[in-house]
Amino acid sequence: MIRLARDLTRDDVLAIANDKGAKPFQARALVEAIFDKGLRSLERATFLPKDVRAALESELALAASRIVDRSVSSDGTVKFLHELSDGETIESVLIPDGDRTTLCVSSQVGCPVACVFCASGLAGVRRNLTSAEIVDQFLFAREHLEAEGQRDTDQRGRRLTNVVVMGLGEPMLNLDNVEAALRMISRDLEFSPRRITISTSGYPDRVVALAARALPWNLAISLHAADSRLRKDLVPTATKEPRELVAAARAWFESTGREPTFEIVLLRGQNDRLADADALIALLRGQACTVNLLPWNPVAGVEPWIATPTDEVVQRFAERLESGGIKTTWRRRRGADRDAACGQLRLRHVHSRSESY
Predict the structure, then answer these.
(1) Closest CA to 293 of 341, 236, 222, 232
(2) Which of 27, 157, 201, 323 could form a disulfide with 22 if both were Cys (CB 3.0 to 4.6 A apart)?
(3) Which fold has domain 65-356?
(4) CA atoms within 13 A on the CB side of 29
(5) How many helices (H) and strands (E) does the chain have?
């Protein structure tokens, strides 16, 4: 049975390498290459004899996925569809913005939260990702940027600056594997934890638990509305009150010193009114935080009443929050011309496969 190397311990990999004929110094070099340098291919482990590499391939896999589709937007956003060893698919997204390059990674195959405006949950949730499958998205993105820099001089020097766990899935429902993956990315692969954000739709008890033991990562809570009834309409699986999410965010800030972000996907005529902004001001008054406004990215297959607000409405909403003392950012839509929202590329792939049977 072939196992993912990064789902094993360093000692496990060391023992396997020794068993397959590697000399002790070669086995140690392999462990360092995998866990500290991000090696994704045994073919590149040229410090090992060919027969040892061939023997290891029968037991160890370094790459957790292969790319089966990609979508490139006119603004430079690139979405990748990863096929895992069991045939399931997930997405990762690279978003270039000036000197900043953000990677969005998935934490589950599909999503159980079922926000009415999101494609991620339209096909349900299949399973959790392992820590190796999460880390692999980071490693692939690094390799991709390096290759692009060699191919295109305009891209030379571009590197990952930020990682956000907000692709497919709910990170708090796969907390152990997400934490293990982010610790590996932060500690072993030396990516600053202050440039990593975990985005969640709720689960305040898990937020508090992670805050107590986490590295200084950033937290983003998908709030969408201050009114509990409206939030329940938008996130049917929500069981916690908005004030409970705010309390969890406060605990996060006290434990980590990192100011949380509350994300609001704005939907025309649903949660983009000035009364909705006033409710947010009342809920968040005195809370150290930033509100990030995200005008909705169109998604095929969602409720027909969902639409994107105009820029003028978003601007007015942001100004109202600012006047109420709430720090506010407005994230312009990215990749809007090429299935930008989370889950759309996978959903298209799932439907095409089912139609071919």
Answers:
(1) 222
(2) 27
(3) TIM Barrel (3.20.20)
(4) 13
(5) 11, 14
Residue keyed to tokens 């996130």: 235
Residue keyed to tokens 């980590």: 256
Q: Which residues are catalytic?
A: 91, 342
267 in helix, strand or coil?
Answer: coil
Structure tokens at 351: 């439907």
Residues 3 and 51: their CA atoms lie apart, in Å, by 19
Residues 223-241 as b or e (16 or more Cβ within 10 Å = b): bbbbbeebbeebbeebebe
Segment 251-261 shows an average pLDDT of 94
* Whether 215 contacts 193, CB under 8 Å: yes
Q: Domain locations in the chain? A: 3-61, 65-356
Contacts 24+ apart (CB under 8 A), 53-58: 55/20, 55/21, 56/16, 56/17, 56/20, 56/22, 56/30, 58/2
Greater confidence, 250 or 337?
Answer: 250
| Host H or E run for residue 26 | helix 24-35
Give the domain 3-61 fold: DNA polymerase; domain 1 (1.10.150)
Query: Chain centroid to CA 161: how far?
Result: 14
Under 8 Å between Cβ of 226 and 282: yes
Using a 10 angstrom Cβ sphere, with 0-12 exposed, 13-18 middle and 19 or more buried, the burial of residue 212 is exposed
Half-sphere exposure of 287 (CA within 13 A, CB side): 26
User: pLDDT confidence of 114, banded at 50, 70, 90?
Assistant: confident
Of the candidates 52, 54, 62, the residue with the CA atom closest to the CA atom of residue 24: 52
47 close to 56: Cβ distance less than 8 angstroms? no
Please count the CA atoms within 13 angstroms of the CA of 221 that sit on its side-chain side. 30
User: Looking at residue 342, what is its pLDDT?
Assistant: 58
What phi, psi does 174 have (nearest 5°)? -140, 45
